[in-house]
């Protein structure tokens, strides 16, 4: 626990000022985190970035992450992100032939899903920061509250396993405790922050986001269990990898936009 706290304090001291500052330092940080996340995802299936398909996957991720405000140059070359992505998929499929199936159709599918899994979340992280900084802090704090509430309430009164096949330590009581904790934080944001929606809508959206944040956590747990690994990486001592830290937020940031909170 001591190591987790020390890592969290150091990471927050680096992460939060860059988020607040925004601009190119923030975008560069997101690109670095997302690239590490893709590396961790591919490593689960024993794929590497240090290969032709790995490098191509990384390039596709970087293109995917281009913020909307800087994507004008794509129009100048008369291509969209979707068209470039489709071209990348075709190149990955072509590589299955070149590699004589050492890089297989299944590997192509895993690479594409990894790009989308990591890319969607971090792209909308950039878009959320560009739209309104307070919603970045809102997303961070409701997920931190969800995680903390689920952990402490689950330990205190948790008796019913939530999904033991995927994550044996999570309980139903902790699940609802996490949602309740997130609602308390959302209420504080509504009172103290400059949120652009009514209290009722914010609380309803928060409950939804808290639930899907926990689902995002379980999705990554299922992925790790399937590939028989404990953590996605070890870059954050006591916490694991980047995907271990951002698994919930990779679901929450896109949903903030799909719910039209911004």
UniProtKB/TrEMBL annotation:
UniProt key word Lipid metabolism: yes
Broad class of the protein's primary localization: membrane
Catalysed reaction, written as an equation: a 1,2-diacyl-sn-glycero-3-phosphate + CTP + H(+) = a CDP-1,2-diacyl-sn-glycerol + diphosphate
Keyword entries, A-Z: Cell membrane, Lipid biosynthesis, Lipid metabolism, Membrane, Nucleotidyltransferase, Phospholipid biosynthesis, Phospholipid metabolism, Transferase, Transmembrane, Transmembrane helix
Family annotation (Pfam families): CTP_transf_1
Compartments where found: Cell membrane
UniProt key word RNA-binding: no
Bilayer-crossing regions: 6-35, 47-67, 79-96, 108-126, 132-153, 174-193, 199-219
EC number assigned by the record: 2.7.7.41
Entry's Gene Ontology cellular component terms: plasma membrane
UniProt pathway: Lipid metabolism; Phospholipid metabolism; CDP-diacylglycerol biosynthesis; CDP-diacylglycerol from sn-glycerol 3-phosphate: step 3/3
The family this protein is said to belong to: Belongs to the CDS family.
Name of the featured protein: Phosphatidate cytidylyltransferase
């Amino acid at each position: 626990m001591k190591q987790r706290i020390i890592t969290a304090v150091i990471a927050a001291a680096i992460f939060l000022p860059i988020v607040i500052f925004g601009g190119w330092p923030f975008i560069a940080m997101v690109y670095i985190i997302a690239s590490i996340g893709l590396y961790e995802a591919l490593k689960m299936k024993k794929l590497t970035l240090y290969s032709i398909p790995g490098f191509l996957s990384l390039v596709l991720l970087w293109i995917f992450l281009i913020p909307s405000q800087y994507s004008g140059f794509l129009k100048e070359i008369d291509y969209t992100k979707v068209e470039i992505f489709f071209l990348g998929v075709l190149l990955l499929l072509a590589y299955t032939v070149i590699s004589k199936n050492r890089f297989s159709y299944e590997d192509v599918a895993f690479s594409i899903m990894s790009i989308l899994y990591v890319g969607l979340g971090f792209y909308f992280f950039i878009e959320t920061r560009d739209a309104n900084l307070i919603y970045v802090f809102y997303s961070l704090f409701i997920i931190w509250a969800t995680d903390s509430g689920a952990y402490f309430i689950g330990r205190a009164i948790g008796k019913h396993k939530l999904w033991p096949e995927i994550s044996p330590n999570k309980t139903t009581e902790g699940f609802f405790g996490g949602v309740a904790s997130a609602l308390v934080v959302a209420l504080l944001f509504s009172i103290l922050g400059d949120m652009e929606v009514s209290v009722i809508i914010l609380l309803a959206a928060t409950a939804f986001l808290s639930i899907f944040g926990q689902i995002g956590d379980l999705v990554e747990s299922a992925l790790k269990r399937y590939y028989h690994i404990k953590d996605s990486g070890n870059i954050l001592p006591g916490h694991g990898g980047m995907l271990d830290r951002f698994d919930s937020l990779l679901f929450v940031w896109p949903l903030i936009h799909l719910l039209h909170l911004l």
